[in-house]
Amino acid sequence: MLHDVHRPPPTAAHGRRLASARTRGAGALAALCAAAALTLAACASVSPPPAPHLEPDAGIRRVGVYVPSGVWNGLAGLEELEAMVGRPFDLAHWFASFDVAFDPVPVHDVLRSGRVPLITWQPMREDLRDIAAGVHDDYLRSWADGVRAAPGIVYLRPFPEMNGDWVPWNGDPDAFRAAWAHVTALFRDAGAVNVRWVWSPNLTDEPRTDANRMERYYPGRDQVDVLALSGYNWGETRPYIGWRTFGEMLAVPYRRLTDLGDQPVWMAETASTEVGGDKAAWIRDMFASAAAFPRLEAVVWFNENKETDWRLESSAAALRAFARSVPPPAEP
């Protein structure tokens, strides 16, 4: 689904934080965990989660999250959720539009905290053919320079859900591939060797026509580092879709995706509603069914109360299921 693009809230301290980025160690996380545990116990009698029971090398290796408070003024919102689930997230996800300047503050904060940034980059007003023709090259170079200066790997996810008719960049696979090729070439020429490109269609083609098949938008193996998908369990909030388990959602698009290349597979956006089924069971199935998708390396949860309450903390049962099922943090 198309998400509102979040912009950095203006604060007096915003420009100063890069030089004084906080070191977030185990002590800070432990304090947050203790506070969150008291909160959960008071409202839902949630006991501390036991150690995850998945083997470190089984199934999903990276777990990420998007939190609506963003990452522009510190990682407090992210850390609060981490305290609830009892482990740090490996990936921190946020959204930016093509008219937002590259901001090194959240990128550096996330990297220095030991997490990996995943930025979804959306041209809300810019035409794909203009992008391919170089109309926005000065802007693109500013992003390439910013990524190149980052102290680690940065994952960029441009033009997501391109096979969905709710995004303005849908409907012209040729223009899409040309724009993608232009952007990746510009970053390469700028020396941004630390960028990783995440190509991320929707689970289903909408409209479901041959001309709009996700495969037609694929730029090619040499321009894509991660094959990703976006998909949600809408349950009875959209009765024409209905309740679907994670495994049911992923079965067909996973096969289509892995037929395109040998890159790792991510679920770049996912979540479940509470309406129409058992969200806690859905979450347990998400991790348990990973063995059926051997190339699925990462899952990124969309943690916002938006079209429905997608949040992990939408119920004590859902939060407890995630905390007890999530695998250990990925090795650095």
Topology:
Layout: H1 26-44, E1 62-66, H2 76-85, E2 91-97, H3 104-112, E3 116-122, H4 128-133, H5 137-148, E4 154-158, H6 173-189, E5 195-199, E6 226-230, H7 246-258, E7 265-270, H8 279-288, E8 296-302, H9 316-325
Parallel strand pairs: 1-2, 1-8, 2-3, 3-4, 4-5, 5-6, 6-7, 7-8
How does this structure look, described?
The chain is α/β, with parallel strands linked by helices. It has one domain: TIM Barrel (Alpha-Beta Barrel), CATH 3.20.20. The protein is built from nine helices and eight strands. The chain has an eight-stranded parallel barrel with strand order 1-2-3-4-5-6-7-8. Helix 5 (137-148) packs across helix 6 (173-189) and helix 8 (279-288) runs parallel beside helix 9 (316-325). The chain is globular, with a radius of gyration of 19 Å. The two termini are 31 Å apart. 42% of the residues are buried.
Low-pLDDT stretches: 6-58
Q: Give the radius of gyration.
A: 19 Å
Assign the CATH class: Alpha Beta
Write the CATH architecture name. Alpha-Beta Barrel
Q: Helical residue percent? A: 25-40%
So, the CATH homologous superfamily?
Glycosidases
Q: Tell me the domain tally.
A: 1
Helical stretch count? Answer: 9
Overall residue-averaged pLDDT value:
87
Rough outline = globular
Strand numbers in spatial order across the main sheet: 1-2-3-4-5-6-7-8
Tell me the series of helices and strands, N- to C-terminal.
Answer: HEHEHEHHEHEEHEHEH
Largest sheet: 8 strands, parallel, barrel
For the record, give the distance between the C-alpha atoms at the N and C termini, rounded to a whole number: 31 Å
Strand proportion: 5-15%
The tally of beta strands, per DSSP, is 8
Class derived from helix and strand content: alpha/beta
- Which fold name corresponds to the CATH topology? TIM Barrel
